Amino acid sequence: MQPRRKAILISLIVSILLMITKFVAYFLTNSNAILTDATESIVNVVASSFAFYSIYLSTLPRDLNHPYGHGKVEFFSAFLEGLLILIAGIIIIANSIYGLVNPPVIDHLSTGTLILSATGLVNLLTGLYLINQGKKHRSITLYADGKHLLTDTYTSIALIIGLIFILITGKLWLDNVFSILAGMYLIFSGYKLVRTSVGGLMDESDEKVIVNIVSVLQNNRRDEWIDVHNLRAQQYGPDMHIDCHVTLPYYYDLAKVHQEISDIDKLINASTPHNIEFFIHADPCLPECCHYCKVKKCPVRKETFTGEIEWTQKNTRLNQKHFMHELF
């Protein structure tokens, strides 16, 4: 089975089993704190189900209608998961406020606490596994699902501490207070996940990727690569698409230009374990480039070389040759 599909299937099965277990604990105790955790488990199951489908779509090969593949669906999956977490937090807070006004009868708290502890440990291990697989396969869906399960774990830990405190003090109203605090944390976590997924859907630039690409180019630059500009990156599921302009000596023939572009492509792909599709537009040099061009024995040099311009995160992203940067 494809690794990403296997990981999310494990998450789905675990989520269903934990949801059933937590609702059993709730019916035993009638505790709003445990209901908080059980409610979030419903979100886990729904989110994992959609995540499974989205990963199935994202692993399909490219076709005429989807020339960049189906990877963008993973951002939508993460958006839905974040939205469900946020809604769950709101519902939990509303239910807990009602519980403060009309406190329920709570029983078997010690049994419920033990069950919640066991489910929290399983969530922790599953969440860490999914985050690891998400990073390994560049899957925001797996990463988001893993972060969700870790959020669920942190919520469980907070609620367990609260239940223990209730058992010690006998103050049952604290059950709802801890539920409200957990609900507020869920709202915050859901918002962050929604924000990340919207950024991906809007092709928000990944600063870490840009910094890494620029660093690789700067550390391995050739004299013939006069400047790099208009550098952009887009993520489509596990795949990354990068395009840029590279200024080369204008007297190079087509075969030489193609070779230089191919070498840049190979250099970038060798620097990462993930697949990167590079689109490079070759620009001819101009006389104004001469003062920072390091090509030795250039037959058409118009100006004396005065110094190399270091490629940075800023000047490689502007849609201008580097001599134009100095005018502004």
- Alpha-carbon Rg, integer: 27 Å
Q: What is the CATH homology-level superfamily of the largest domain?
A: Cation efflux protein transmembrane domain
Total helices: the number is: 9
Order of helices and strands: HHHHHHHEEHEH
**Sheet bearing the most strands, described?**
3 strands, mixed
Based on secondary structure, the structural category is mainly alpha
Q: What proportion of the residues is helical, as a percent range?
A: 55-70%
> Which descriptor suits the 3D outline?
elongated
Oligomer description: single chain
Q: How are the strands ordered across the major sheet?
A: 1-2-3
Low-confidence stretches: none
Spatial separation of the terminal alpha carbons: 54 Å
The top-level CATH class of the largest domain is Mainly Alpha
The CATH architecture name of the largest domain reads Up-down Bundle
Q: Give the overall average pLDDT.
A: 81
> CATH topology of the largest domain, which one?
Alpha-lytic protease prodomain-like
The number of distinct β-strands equals: 3
Number of domains: 2
Strand coverage percent:
5-15%
What does this structure look like?
There is one protein chain. This protein has 328 residues and is mainly α. It folds into 2 domains: 199 residues, Cation efflux protein transmembrane domain (Alpha-lytic protease prodomain-like, Up-down Bundle), CATH 1.20.1510; 119 residues, Alpha-Beta Plaits (2-Layer Sandwich). The chain is 62% helix and 9% strand. It contains 9 helices and 3 strands; from the N terminus they run αααααααββαβα. Strands 1-2-3 form a 3-stranded mixed beta sheet, covered by helices on one side. The longest helix has 30 residues.
